[in-house]
């Protein structure tokens, strides 16, 4: 059932040989040529162009009765990314972004992805869809060398939010994931989302937040090291990775990516669906100033959502979804509520909401002012 293929091609392969030698079975692929063919010629084809997170490509919240073949294209890009001031990551990415783009289909649809490994890359890559069935999530059918492409089709049999990531084999798997190679796919029920009582639910917009832990090595002076290419970065990065203490925990690729000029925007009264993925470590999302009106903590839409959560849990290697209607204007902080990781390591986003303040929900009865401590405040003590 398993066959061997050439691991390396061209100059890029020669340069990457010492690294690829560590991937014990990265070049094993599954031979499915003897399987019975499936005739999908009568199904309608729909093609979506993926967009950079936190935005999401246009899609329908409910689908027609008949399943469709939904086509995507994605290019693998290896590049240097400045994660924070003076901290550079030799990144491996899907479509040049960290995280990779969010794909949206409906339960029963067929996902057809053409994956390109750019010829200027050094490494073998593939894609493992947690939403799919068999062949290591498609990983053993999609292993591509630099300069190669492949097309994978799988049936989306389960509704929910799911992680995808690169998994080329052996020690390459965690390295590729913590170098940026993860994303998510959302499989909506054909008739759309439902609340905990079975009532239809819709959203006005989607924000996709991919959380990553990075392990950037430091030199003897405590300064972050910078490497000439992804292969050179491996030995030192591996040492930091195996210590299990990240140098950075960030949303969407770098510290501050979703604050300041990159902040998310919404209007008072809008219902926003937040999709949050973490391919490697557990996380605890929290919206400061708001709540999870409906939370699919495990991300699976066949299960009823929980209501009114303050903080929810995203297991490492999974994606979840939360729906919130913004009731007040202002700046909301969306954080990993391990506050050390949020504040000190970078896992913070801001949502700027336009609207009119509602004093019934919250009112500053008295602005801060000095008081006479000799007479006032005594009754506050037990």
UniProtKB/TrEMBL annotation:
Chain positions recorded as Cu cation binding sites: 125, 130, 165-166, 176, 181, 337
Pfam family, one: Cu-oxidase
Pathway linked to the protein: Nitrogen metabolism; nitrate reduction (denitrification); dinitrogen from nitrate: step 2/4
Signal peptide: 1-26
Keywords, comma-separated and alphabetical: Copper, FAD, Flavoprotein, Metal-binding, Nitrate assimilation, Oxidoreductase, Periplasm, Repeat, Signal
GO molecular function: copper ion binding; nitrite reductase (NO-forming) activity
Any one GO BP annotation for this protein: denitrification pathway
Major location category of this protein: periplasm
Gene3D superfamilies assigned: Cupredoxins - blue copper proteins
Reaction catalysis annotation: nitric oxide + Fe(III)-[cytochrome c] + H2O = Fe(II)-[cytochrome c] + nitrite + 2 H(+)
Note accompanying the cofactor annotation: Binds 1 Cu(+) ion.
Cofactor(s) recorded in Swiss-Prot or TrEMBL: FAD; Cu(2+); Cu(+)
Cell compartment(s), UniProt: Periplasm
GO cellular component, one term: periplasmic space
Domain Plastocyanin-like intervals: 78-190, 207-356
InterPro entries (UniProt xref): Cu-oxidase-like_N, Cu-oxidase_2nd, Cu-oxidase_fam, Cupredoxin, NO2-reductase_Cu, TAT_signal
Known EC number: 1.7.2.1
Family label: Belongs to the multicopper oxidase family.
Protein name (database record): Copper-containing nitrite reductase
Organism whose genome encodes this protein: Mesobaculum littorinae
Gene: nirK
């Amino acid at each position: 059932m398993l066959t061997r293929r050439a691991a390396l091609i061209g100059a890029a392969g020669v340069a990457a040989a010492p690294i690829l030698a560590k991937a014990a079975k990265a070049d094993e692929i599954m031979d499915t040529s003897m399987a019975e063919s499936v005739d999908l010629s009568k199904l309608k084809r729909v093609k979506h162009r993926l967009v950079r997170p936190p935005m999401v490509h246009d899609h329908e919240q409910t689908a027609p009765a008949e399943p469709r073949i939904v086509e995507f294209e994605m290019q693998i890009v290896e590049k240097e990314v400045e994660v924070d001031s003076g901290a550079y990551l030799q990144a491996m990415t899907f479509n040049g972004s960290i995280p990779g783009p969010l794909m949206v289909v409906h339960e029963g649809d067929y996902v057809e992805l053409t994956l390109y490994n750019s010829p200027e890359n050094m490494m073998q890559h593939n894609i493992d869809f947690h939403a799919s069935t068999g062949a290591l999530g498609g990983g053993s059918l999609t292993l591509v060398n630099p300069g190669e492409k492949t097309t994978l089709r799988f049936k989306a049999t389960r509704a929910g939010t799911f992680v995808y990531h690169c998994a080329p084999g052996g020690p390459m798997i965690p390295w590729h994931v913590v170098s940026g190679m993860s994303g998510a796919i959302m499989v909506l029920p054909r008739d759309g989302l439902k609340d905990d009582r079975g009532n239809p639910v819709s959203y006005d917009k989607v924000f996709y937040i991919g959380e990553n832990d990075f392990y950037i090595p430091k030199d003897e002076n405590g300064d972050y090291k910078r490497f000439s290419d992804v292969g050179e970065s491996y030995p030192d990065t591996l040492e930091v990775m195996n210590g299990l203490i990240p140098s950075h925990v960030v949303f969407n690729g770098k510290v501050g990516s979703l604050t300041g000029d990159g902040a998310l925007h919404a209007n008072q009264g809008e219902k926003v669906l937040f999709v949050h993925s973490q391919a490697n470590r557990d996380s605890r999302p929290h919206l400061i100033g708001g709540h999870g009106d409906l939370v699919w903590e495990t991300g699976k839409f066949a299960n009823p959502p929980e209501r009114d959560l303050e903080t929810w849990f995203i297991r490492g290697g999974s994606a979840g979804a939360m729906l919130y209607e913004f009731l007040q204007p202002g700046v909301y902080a969306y954080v990993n509520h391990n506050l050390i990781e949020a504040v000190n390591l970078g896992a913070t986003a801001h949502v700027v909401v336009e609207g009119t303040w509602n004093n019934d929900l919250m009112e500053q009865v008295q602005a801060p002012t000095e008081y006479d401590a000799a007479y006032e405040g005594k009754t506050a003590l037990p």
